[in-house]
Amino acid sequence: MPGEVQRGLQDVVALESRICFIDGQQGRLIYRGYDIRELAERSTFEEVAYLLWYGRLPTTSQLGELQQRLASLRTIPPELARQLDALPASAEPMDVLRTAVSALAVFEPGETSAGPSSIGGAQRLTAALPTVLGAFHRRRSNRPLLRDRPELSHAAYLIYALLDREPTELEARAVDVALILHADHELNASTFAARITASTLSDLYSAVTSAVGTLKGPLHGGANERVMEMLDEIGSLDRVEEVVKAKLARHERIMGFGHRVYKVEDPRATILRAWSRRLGEAKGDLRYCRLLEKVVEVVHREKGLYPNLDLYSGSVYSLLGVPHDLFTPVFAASRVVGWTAHVLEEYDDLRLIRPTAAYVGPTDLAYVPIASRT
Ligand code: ACO
Question: Which CATH topology does 19-218+324-348 take?
């Protein structure tokens, strides 16, 4: 007999994993044994990608090889570039990304077997996502096509692909840290979706397609975009109290707050808040910092909720000039590493994920022929 229903699978332990640990009471996040605070301070995104995929920090030569490999995999097939050109310029970038991941599998059929060799697909997708986003965004803003820039780090290439300029050292490091912080988060909804798909022995590209569709929702990756909409709606410091209280009175969710697992502040939010301030100071623009500080104070006082990562990522990207509708795709360009690490782990310890529902409908209705139905 099925047990008690845990709505939203809250607190259900679905599988064992060696990739990521969250201590929601203490506000700790660990990738493969290493504290996120230390990784954000001392590592690069490429190092963290190696760690998540292979389970250990790379040596200098292993890191160099991975950097070269990722840089060499950035170019997308011309057939895919043509497909992207055929999509309406008004399309939502997350829809474009989902379509591109799926299409890439068709143009690279050699990469679609399920198993340890899928690490090739994991690296291909990670390298190609900034190019896909850049190709789409440049076309809709009538800017020239991307050039290969193998000398740029993943973070710098992402900014170059989107904004057609090289970031400053500070900007590149801010994006690098943001990518590190977004790279994995245990069994979040999109990663679980990827693992469910992989557990049927489907291929990595299908698993990542499922994940992109799941990340898109405003309760998950889509929250960062909504945070900036809220800041635009608030406009000035003296309106924070009024706007936030009105939202709460209407029982609206305040985006960028609350978390299923963290009962204290999300450690990623703490790190990104500091980067948001650092960037704001460098650009002489602390408007977002001040608004967010006040929003945090009001939401905590009124509702006891703490910020999550999504509260600050939008302000970092906005200060760089990234358009709002690209925030969630930028999240995906990092989380693809976590998704694929989990897919590889799933292939290694495969068991079809198939929970049970507590059926609460009728079971013995009399069948009525169509002609007699009212
Ligand atoms: N604003 C207002 N109230 C909230 C919020 C919020 N952001 N988050 C939770 N609550 C309230 C709920 O209304 C509910 O109140 P009630 O018991 O009076 O009805 C209570 O807190 C519990 O909420 P649940 O939805 O049951 O908690 P859950 O664990 O499912 O929520 C979630 C987690 C979905 C992230 C939620 O906090 C939320 O909607 N946050 C806003 C969206 C967001 O920021 N998402 C990003 C998450 S992090 C990431 O994906 C990177």
Answer: Citrate Synthase; domain 1 (1.10.580)
